[in-house]
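Let's inspect one such protein example.
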Amino acid sequence: PTADGHPLRVREAIELVAGAERPVLYVGGGIIKANASAELRRFAELTGIPVTTTLMGRGAFPDSHPLAMGMPGMHGTYTAITALQQSDLILAIGVRFDDRVTGNPATFAPLAKVVHVDVDPAEIGKVRTADVPIVGDAGRVLDQLIEAWGERDAPDLSSWMDTIRGWQRAHPLAYDQSPDGPIKPQYVVEELHRLTGGDAIVVSGVGQHQMWASQFWSFEDPRRWINSGGLGTMGFAVPAAIGAKAGRPDELVYAIDGDGSFQMTSQELITAATEGIPVKIAIMNNGVHGMVTQWQRLFYGGRYSASRLGSSVDYVKLAEAMGCAGLRAESPDEVAPTIEKSLAIDDRPVVVEFVVDPEEMVFP
């Protein structure tokens, strides 16, 4: 494939950036595959353009950066969703305009011109027609954009950034964890992040827990988040976490899984125990296929079908039967001590069951 973008298209993109009042960098897994996070950060800081990272692009741009808006789409942040929708220029790099980001493509970002950069020409124009299509490697094209920007001053985006920061203040990601109520999955993710210092490779299965992990874990670096976005393969977390730990044995690898997703490949922990791969698995046990029940509740009048798992599985005993350590937290005050216990065990895999609120839904 072509690595460098066409110089004329690069110049056209820069002219659009220079004239934009509400630009957004919409970036995805292509940035990570191209190892282009450093180039992305340089270009964002050079131009002052705010950044939203897709589910597959989490970690491509640090969440702590003042230009970061978090994840877009159905389960993204209010700020990222609204900024894209109200933008006048979208610089889409290494993304595919997935339907979970765009919703109805005909009404997505109606005022925005689009610069679409992708190494695969089949992706460009597949969903949204690009005003400036650029076929090329994300890192190489970003280098070209930086060079083409040259010594220009950053555009005055102060009004746009004031608006964005207003949205961030008014509409943060939030949940209500009552001390005596059921465990909220978001609280588990935040406690995992706090107690690990964020220094872990995080792997997820597919479902509500995947979205909560992406929302409430602060990702600062690429390749610290492994999940099956796009394909959406339930059962991904356990084998992927084992592979990550085998490949990076000195790293802490913590999988965040759902009970439904975990049940599909839990037997692979026998391999982890046999081969001495001390991966850690957090199960958000809500007794249901959470994403399916959420849709059935919201869109089908609460008519639940093939989505209730029940509570017949004892995950602690199951873990122990496979040669792993098994732990359980059933109330909010047990969450932190149980995580700490899991972090202290490093001679075998650890499975931690968090009995979470079955009614909790995942929202922007």
User: Anything to note?
Assistant: The chain is about 40% helix and 15% strand. The chain has a mean pLDDT of 97. Residues 7-170 form a domain with the Rossmann fold fold (CATH 3.40.50.1220). The longest helix spans residues 7-19.
